[in-house]
Design a protein that fits this description.
With about 120 residues, this protein is of the alpha/beta class. The chain folds into two domains: about 35 residues, no CATH class; about 70 residues, Aldehyde Dehydrogenase, Chain A, domain 2, CATH 3.40.309. Helices cover about 20% and strands about 10% of the residues. The protein has three helices and four strands. Strands 1-2 form a two-stranded parallel ribbon. Strands 3-4 form a two-stranded parallel ribbon. Strand 3, helix 2 and strand 4 form a beta-alpha-beta unit. The longest helix is centred in the middle third of the chain and has 10 residues. The relative contact order is 0.12.
């Protein structure tokens, strides 16, 4: 629902969603957290990677090792593991798929401003 000043939305958590819910296929730029329950991590990974967007994903788990393995398999540019904030000036920022190419920030962000020179020679 719109906030009182109509310039945005109140933070919203959506629960009891099915895997085919339209909101799970959209790239949401707002304070909306769709929650899906699952029993098998391979099954949910397949659903996560089937969308056409991939800016940022969030993984919350008690098993950090399992979370890291899951994060490595996600097709997304950034991942928050047990945290909601992923942006950091020292870290590369960017997505994959329809969420963009390239990175801003961090070492990777500097590469767009550099020219690579290749010298081939016989010594």
């Amino acid at each position: 629902r719109a906030s009182d000043n109509s310039f945005g939305y109140h933070p919203t958590v959506l629960t009891n969603l099915k895997f085919d819910s339209a909101i799970l296929k959209e790239e949401i730029f707002g304070p909306v957290a769709p929650i899906v329950r699952f029993a098998d991590s391979d099954d949910i990974l397949s659903h996560c990677n089937s969308v056409e967007h991939g800016l940022v994903s969030y993984v919350f788990t008690r098993d950090v090792g399992r979370g890291l393995k899951f994060a490595e398999a996600l097709e997304t540019g950034m991942i928050g593991l047990n945290r909601g904030l992923v942006s950091d000036p020292a870290a590369p920022f960017g997505g994959v798929k329809a969420s963009g190419l390239g990175r801003e920030g961090g070492h990777d962000g500097l590469l767009a401003f550099l020219e690579t020179k290749y010298v081939a020679g016989n010594w």
